Amino acid sequence: MSATRLVTLADADALAELYSANRDFLTPWEPVRNDDFYTADGERAVIGDALARHAQGTALPHVICDGSGLVAGRITLNNIVRGAFQSCDLGYWVSAALNGRGLATGAVREMIGQAISGLGLHRIQAATLPHNAASQKVLARNGFTQIGMAPEYLHTAGRWQDHFIYHVVAPG
């Protein structure tokens, strides 16, 4: 149902529009953003940074596309660590207008495949706020299990907040 692809600088306008339209929806789940973030120039800077980390092998930044190919959100494997750890963190969001249609579930499934089969990673970790039931369902549908709760784990919505930690490991 969903499709993901590597983000490009050409996505800056679409992402700026999408972030602006979803600003109130995303505010409880994300860090506080300055107004520049919601502009095409701001998004070009964010994308440029993500693509630089991708070139270094520490991130896999994708966009989530709807059935017609339009950008509907973001999904990224961050903090890719090699060596004995072979692990990464997963973050994602889908526009409020497209929530509940399976886009996030499908995108997470695709990124698990990229992480395990494409990159040879062993473990993918994700964190959710305790009250983010929708994201927890997406993770559960994709085989993630909750492994704990991290107090004051991430600075979201302007304050340090506890997060549930989930992971999935490569089979075998």
- What fraction, in percent, of the residue positions are helical? 25-40%
Oligomer: single chain
* Structure summary, number of beta strands: 7
Quick one: biggest sheet? 7 strands, mixed
> What is the beta-strand fraction?
25-35%
> From the coordinates shown, what is the CATH architecture?
3-Layer(aba) Sandwich
CATH superfamily: Gcn5-related N-acetyltransferase (GNAT)
- Structural class determined from secondary elements: alpha+beta
Q: How would you state the average pLDDT, rounded?
A: 95
Shape: globular
CATH topology, what is it called?
Aminopeptidase
Main CATH class: Alpha Beta
Using only C-alpha atoms, the radius of gyration works out to: 15 Å
Short synopsis of the structure:
32% of the residues lie in helices and 34% in strands. The protein has helices at residues 12-21, 23-26, 40-55, 103-118, 133-141, and strands at residues 3-6, 60-65, 71-81, 87-94, 123-128, 145-156, 159-169.
Give a structural overview.
- This protein has one domain: Aminopeptidase.
- It contains five helices and seven strands.
- The chain has helices at residues 12-21, 23-26, 40-55, 103-118, 133-141, and strands at residues 3-6, 60-65, 71-81, 87-94, 123-128, 145-156, 159-169.
- The protein has a seven-stranded mixed beta sheet, with helices on both faces.
- Helix 1 packs across helix 3.
- The longest helix has 16 residues, at 40-55.
